[in-house]
Every structure is written in C-alpha cells, then in structure tokens.
C-alpha cells in the first residue's frame, strides 16, 4: 500500500540496520550487533586483548573521588556512548555500562579500566543478542515457541555453585531455579 503512495523500492528482508544485524534462523528472527562490536573493538584498539569472563568485577565500587590520574574524557565518553548503544541488543551490559556512565564528567584511570573490561568482555561474546519473539507478539504475529535470550549467565551459575555468596543476594527474587 505504501509503495503505491510513495516512491520506494523493496530491498528484500531486513538484514542490517543502524549497526544492528537481523538473521532469520528456523523461522525466528535473531537480532545482534556482531559487526558493530567488531568495529567498536577495532576503533578502540581492544580487539587483540584477552577476553574477560564478566563485564565487571564482583563487588565493584567506583567513586568520583577514586584515586588515579585523569584520563582523556573525550575517549572515555566515546567508549561509554558506544557501549550504551550496544545495550539495545545486550541488556546484560546495562548495569555495568550504567555504572561507567556516572563518571563521564571527570573520568580517572580506574573508571577507564572498568570501561575497557567491558570491551574485553564483549570481545568474547560478540554474537550474543536477542530473539525478537516479544516484538513479534506486540505486532500481533503469533510465535508458537518461547523466546531464547543468549546472554552470559556466569554470575548466576557462580552464585548457585558458591552458597557463601547467598547471603549477599537474598534480594534476588527466584521464580525458577534450574542449573
């Protein structure tokens, strides 16, 4: 209908838009930012560094009064801004990236180290993303199977394996517990 009213061309199925890749796998749509992550790591010279297992250290405490030298605020803002865009398809990064966002006014060495650790983490999880089942449901397109979410569960697995940390996590509501 739009093609009759406006001059446009059908480019086929959506595959790449604004740094977000879409793949149809087994009649489901998978959304990720693998190419964006690769370009991001190359831009900030982090592609060759070792991968991190988690986006941030456990019990990480950051402060505006952290010791250390001031770092290039422009570079820090570029890294954090790029990571914030990545949260569109990687909700597991939201907490860590949000934490680093607090220190953009006057970042210091410890703040930059946390941002670079997030980059090292995404290096190992480049193709994580979302299945678009929920979006399809909102568009009134029926999907028979549950939505898969491919994110890192290492923190939850470690919590279950080490009951010593249980006291610190009582605020987490448990609905399902399967390991």
Automatic annotation (TrEMBL):
It comes from the Eukaryota. The lineage of its organism: Eukaryota, Viridiplantae, Streptophyta, Embryophyta, Tracheophyta. This is Uncharacterized protein LOC113866144. Pfam families: RVT_2. Residues 1-56 form the Reverse transcriptase Ty1/copia-type domain. It comes from Abrus precatorius.
